[in-house]
Amino acid sequence: MWDFCISNLLVKTGIGLSVGIVASALIFKRKSWPIALSTGFGIGVSYAECQKTFNPTAIPGVKIIKNSSSTSG
């Protein structure tokens, strides 16, 4: 589980950083805020996916239903 979250963090942060650098160079006249913003988005998405991995009941709309059927032997 942890290895998935760490690799996901590295990949999403790297993608966010890359998108931020490209956006900063091409669109925003080499400002630094697009890099920080897109890197933060990558970290946030990775955190949300790890939270869903470790705590599946935290997903909105998910209900845990207890199995109430009794088995007679």
Can you describe this structure in just a few lines?
By secondary structure, this protein is mainly α. The protein has two helices and no strands.
Main structural class: mainly alpha
- The rounded Rg comes to 20 Å
Mean of the pLDDT scores?
86
How are helices and strands ordered from N to C?
Answer: HH
The helical percent reads: 55-70%
Q: What is the number of helices?
A: 2
Q: Let me know the number of strands.
A: 0
Task: Give the strand content.
Answer: under 5%
Intertermini distance: 38 Å
Low-confidence stretches: none
How would a textbook summarize the main sheet? none
Subunit structure: Component of the mitochondrial contact site and cristae organizing system (MICOS) complex.
Protein name: MICOS complex subunit MIC10
Main location: mitochondrion
Pfam family, one: DUF543
Notes on the protein architecture:
Helix 1 runs antiparallel to helix 2. The longest helix has 25 residues. The model has no long low-confidence stretch (mean pLDDT 86). The protein is built from 2 helices and no strands. With 73 residues, the protein is an all-alpha fold. This is MICOS complex subunit MIC10. It is found in: Mitochondrion inner membrane. Component of the mitochondrial contact site and cristae organizing system (MICOS) complex.
